[in-house]
Amino acid sequence: MKNITVVGSGTMGSGIAHCFAQYGFNVNLVDLSQEALKRAMVKIEANLDRQLKKEILSLEEKAAALARIRPMTVLEEAVQKADLVVEAVSENQAVKAKIFAQLDKHAPTECILATNTSSLSITTIAAFTKRPEKVIGMHFMNPVPVMRLVEIIKGYQTNETTLSAITALTTQIEKVPLVAADYPGFVANRILLPMINEAIEALFQGVAGVEAIDEMMKLGMGHPMGPLRLADFIGLDVCLSVLEVLHQGFGKDKYAPCPLLRNLVTAGNLGVKTKCGFYDYSDNPKQPTPLKF
Ligand code: NAD
C-alpha cells in the first residue's frame, strides 16, 4: 500500500493522517470545508512538533511527513488512486452509509475500505457497498499518534486477504493490531463504557463525589485517569451513543445509560470539548475543578 485516503479530519482523522504520513504513506485528507482542513493541518503540525521535541522525529522527517498530506474537499477526486480509505467522520450510521456508497462507486476495485467507528456494525456499513469482503473496522485510539492499540474488526463478510493486509499495515506504522468480531462495542468499548456508566451511576446515587470516585480508581486500581475524567475526555455525547448501541444491540438493562449522563448531554455539557462535564475546565484545563452533583 502507498496511497491512503482519510475521510474526516477531526480528532481522529487528523491523528490517523499524521501516523500514516509519518511512516511514509501518501495521504489525501478529506473534509467538508477548507476551514476544517486548515484546523486539522495546524493540529497535525503541533503534534509533529511535540514529537520533534521528544526526538521521535528529526526536522527533515517532520517536514517530509507534513508534505505527504494533501488536504482535499472533493471525495471522488481524493479516492481515485487510493489503496486504502479510512473513514473517520462523525459517529452517525446514516452519514457513514452515504460515504461508503460513494467510496464504493469512486475508489478503485482493489481498494480496502476501513471505518474508525467506535461502535457501529461493520457488517451493516459493508452492506452499503458491493465489496463487503473488503470492508473492515480499524478502530484507532485517542490520541492516535500516542496510543499503540488498533482494534481490528472483522465484519461478517470481511475476507482473510483484507484482514491480513490491514494487520500487516498496522504493524508497519508501529501499532499493535488486535482482532475482534463484529458485535456491539467490539471489545474495548464493550468493557470500558459499562465501567464509566457504573461510575456515573454511583455518583448519581450519591455513593461518592466526582473526585473520590476518580481517585479510588486511580489509586486503587492503578488507572492513569479516573472514569469520570476519562468520560469528559472522550466526550459525554460519544459515551452516550456507544452505551445506546450496547443497550440496543444486546437488549440488556445492564447497558442502559445512567439518567444523569442523558441530562448532561441534553444540557450540552459534553466534557472537555465544551469545557464542562463532570469537571469544569474553564479556568485551568489541565487541573479542572470537580463539580458537585
Ligand atoms: P470529530 O467530530 O472530531 O470529526 C469528524 C469530522 O468529520 C469533522 O471534521 C467533520 O467535518 C467531518 N465530516 C462529517 N461529515 C463528513 C463528510 N460527509 N465528508 C467528509 N468529512 C465529514 O469526530 P472524531 O472524534 O474524530 O470521531 C470520528 C470517528 O472516530 C467516529 O466514528 C468516532 O466514533 C470514532 N472514534 C472516536 C474516538 C474519540 O475519542 N473521539 C476514538 C475512537 C474512535
Number of helices: 12
N- to C-terminal separation?
51 Å
Q: Output the strand order for the largest sheet.
A: 3-2-1-4-5-6-7-8
Question: Could you give the order of the helices and strands?
Answer: EHEHHEHEHEHEEHEHHHHHEE
Poorly predicted runs: none
CATH topology of the largest domain: Rossmann fold
**What's the overall average pLDDT, rounded?**
97
Looking at this structure, what is the CATH superfamily of the largest domain? NAD(P)-binding Rossmann-like Domain
Count of all domains: 2
Helix content: 40-55%
Total DSSP E strands: 10
Bound molecules: nicotinamide-adenine-dinucleotide
Tell me the name of the CATH class of the largest domain.
Alpha Beta
Output the radius of gyration.
19 Å
Which architecture of the largest domain per CATH?
3-Layer(aba) Sandwich
* Biggest sheet statistics: 8 strands, mixed
Indicate the proportion of strand residues.
15-25%
Rough outline: globular
What do you see in this structure?
With 293 residues, the chain is an alpha/beta fold. The chain has two domains: 3-181, NAD(P)-binding Rossmann-like Domain (Rossmann fold, 3-Layer(aba) Sandwich), CATH 3.40.50; 193-280, Orthogonal Bundle (N-(1-d-carboxylethyl)-l-norvaline Dehydrogenase, domain 2), CATH 1.10.1040.10. Helix content is 47%, strand content 15%. The chain has helices at 11-22, 34-53, 59-67, 75-78, 93-106, 122-126, 160-172, 188-204, 210-221, 227-234, 236-250, 259-266, and strands at residues 3-7, 26-30, 69-72, 84-87, 112-115, 135-140, 149-154, 176-181, 279-280, 289-290. Strands 3-2-1-4-5-6-7-8 form an eight-stranded mixed sheet, sandwiched between helices. Strands 9-10 form a two-stranded antiparallel ribbon. Helix 1 (11-22) crosses helix 2. The relative contact order is 0.09. It binds nicotinamide-adenine-dinucleotide. The site of nicotinamide-adenine-dinucleotide has 24 residues, from helix 1 and helix 5.
